[in-house]
Amino acid sequence: MELIKVSANSRTSAVAGAIAGVIRDHNHADVQAIGAGAVNQAVKALILATNYLRNDGIEICCVPEFVEVEIEDKVRTAIRLVVEPR
Amino acid sequence: MELIKVSANSRTSAVAGAIAGVIRDHNHADVQAIGAGAVNQAVKALILATNYLRNDGIEICCVPEFVEVEIEDKVRTAIRLVVEPR
Predict the structure, then answer these.
(1) Does position B2 have pLDDT exceeding 90, yes or no?
(2) Could B50 and A64 be called an inter-chain contact, meaning their C-beta atoms sit closer than 8 Å?
(3) Which of A62, A67, B7, B14 is such that its CA lies 20 to 30 A from the CA of B33?
(4) Is the ipTM of this complex over 0.90?
(5) B55 contact partners, CB below 8 Å, separation of at least 6
(6) What are the domain boundaries of chain A?
């Protein structure tokens, strides 16, 4: 399963399209963000994706979790939004 | 229903306790944040609350939405996390 990585500079509409596409294909999407700016973009993208999918009759909800990720040999704490149909 | 307002300076454990308490009492919690720092704190608090409630056998999930709020006569866009048992 592809992980959707979001940065503080990600375009919310592009991320939203990715979330909606992965949900349509797999009924599950993992969205990962590190840092406040990235988390904010991820949540905004999720709102847009929720609206896109609602138009198709799909209601999604999200369970956030912490995940440890290794970036350039350093362990950082990321936030992962686990998205699924309700 | 009480609205749980989160700022960038909110303590995540305090917000998490509030979310868990409101879910236990009402089966529904609305968590509101304005700005990236506040949204980040809200999501982190939601992760903690998810873990608290999981220990009680309650699985929650969240649907985020935009809301317009008026603060000091200015309209601002807030993010509201609507939290309910799955």
Answers:
(1) no
(2) yes
(3) A67
(4) yes
(5) none
(6) 3-85
